[in-house]
Amino acid sequence: MATEQTSDADYDAFLDEVRRITNVEQAGMALSWDQQVMMPEGGTPARSKQLSTLSTLSHDLLTSDEMGASLDAFEGAEMDDEQSAVVREVRRQYDRADSVPSDLVEQISEAASEALPVWKEAKANDDFEHFAPTLERLVELKREYAEHVDPDADPYAVLFADYEPYLDLDTAERVLERLRDELVPLVEEIQASDADLTTRREAFPDTYDAETQEAMVREALTTLGYPWDRGRLDTAPHPFSTGNQFDARVTTRFDEADPLDALTSTIHEFGHATYTLGLPDEHYGTPLGSHRNLSVHESQSRLWENHVGRTRAWWEQFLPTLHDHFPSTTDLGVDAVYEAANQVFTDNLIRVEADELTYHMHIILRFEIERDLISGDLDVADVPEAWNDKMEEYLGVRPETDSEGCLQDIHWSHGNFGYFPTYSLGSVLAAQLYAAAEADVPDLNAKTMAGEFEPLHEWLTENVHRHGQRYTTDELVEVATGQPYTADYFVEYAKAKYGELYDL
Length: 504
Known about the structure:
The chain is mainly alpha-helical.
């Protein structure tokens, strides 16, 4: 317990203030969800003001004199592990926020809210020039933000730490380099292979209406154990998940030419939601009831999408559901749909539709472009050409439109620079976590084949979700897997899986 200097009453009052901040942030998240899913198009002027007000309020509460005094009082105090973790995390947030002026926080929030409809329109009309001034403004604001947080640091490293505070940018770069060095030769071997896999177009030659697809993915969510009393499914231009342990919502989108796209996207977002729902109820509003960071969050979505939803075992139990919803697929067998779900193709322009291997080339491309944008080595006006050049270099394909190129992702319209590396960091962690789960849970693959997902849920909740922010990222990985964070498991998994698929 706390010492005389920091009584239980002091700590409880501190926690109450932390919960107030969380509730303000959660209100902003709910408004942001509404803007992306349900808000009428004309609502942006008011919504941007609402969100900026909440951002400023949250910032002011976090950086108040009272919060600073409480944190100072806890310095050097004798505390238990839970208290120490909470104070560590709030101190980190306080120190970063206290260095940034409130008016800048308000400007960033308002600019991001106003950017969303501009991005949507630019993407719909294939008009990057329409979005360019907005992107330029967001880049300038985030540079200013990074300068306030740490004027002596690489500004991109400062922004990256907003999403992954404990694995530094050097670690992210090493992981991305390792993936590039290992996956490029593997993809080249696959391209040279004589293996004749069933393609998606061969597996799904017809059109598949969105309404029936929605019914199918709802059944998939139910099969996986999604609690509908604490969640919902909607559509959005760019699928996402948001919420807390009492209300974790997922969104998806539908392509009538490819029902697998919606299914894998929905399972991906389910992974995010099940992490959120697995956080301890009793710690809601505090760091112990909050997700560790975006890398760990992404590990959960990629684990369910790839290590469950793209497996042969998944299709052994789910293929009859696909047949029920789309009778024209009745002749489609497990091997064929498994091959279609895992086919490697370098000519795909869209990240969220990419296969499990070339996906990381998409991440590296975005990482390099936004890093150069923030450093000033790339002008916003030159983004389309830089994007297309890198697509051609890394994947051998050049987008014909900016809608399929640099306008495809929503993240920059949110001002989320530094976010993209967490996708690959999370994928790497997913393989390490799943290997540990396989070692601990008897016959995990057989359970997936039987549609029994509770043992995996329980393992992830016990080893990852319930800890919230008790541990730093590297500590959490060691606690969950018994080993330091490493890309070895992902590389071994990728080579084994695709070596079998393509007879390498």
